[in-house]
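Let's practice the habit of predicting before peeking. Look at the sequence and jot down your guess about where helices and strands might fall. Then scroll down.
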Amino acid sequence: MKRITIIEGHPDLSKEHFGNALVEAYARGAIKAGHEVKRLSVAELDLPVLRSKEEWESENTLSPIQQSQDAITWADHLVIVYPLWHGTMPAMLKAFFEQVFRPGFAISKDESGKMWKKQLTGKSARIVVTMGMPALFYRWYFRAHSLKSLERNILAFCGIGPIKSTLIGMIETIDENKRKQWIDKVAMLGKKAA
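Done guessing? Here is the structure:
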């Protein structure tokens, strides 16, 4: 059994978006299979935007950051669910990663002080991205550049791996049957903690 932290990256508190249904499905599948689940909703966190390197490197004093770091430390597996906005993750989710994945938590300097040491080794991740365009178009034409950036420059840089992704396109036009298929598929991922 695994410990799973689900990070819901949609900045809307209304909970009426498809991403929320996917988060619910993953959590339901995981719990039903006996996995432990914690959830973080970026929309519920009051996090300021970082404005300098000094702020990023400074000691964290905000409770939401510490609680998020605790939930990530606790987990064996991270699940990140977000909508694609302007070709990338929403700004609030980016601000979350900048605040939470700080030096001293996600990375640290090695003995020489020159290289970064990965602090989150041993954790795996699943990224689920919803979008209005066809997922194949995003992956092949746009080369999924923002997804690759999250995988390589944030998660893998901190030692997280393996990292798998699920892209769900055309969410504004898919019918209820297709939505149900996606919810069932994500619930199965939760059951497998994949």
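How did you do? The domain at 3-192 is CATH 3.40.50.360 (Rossmann fold).
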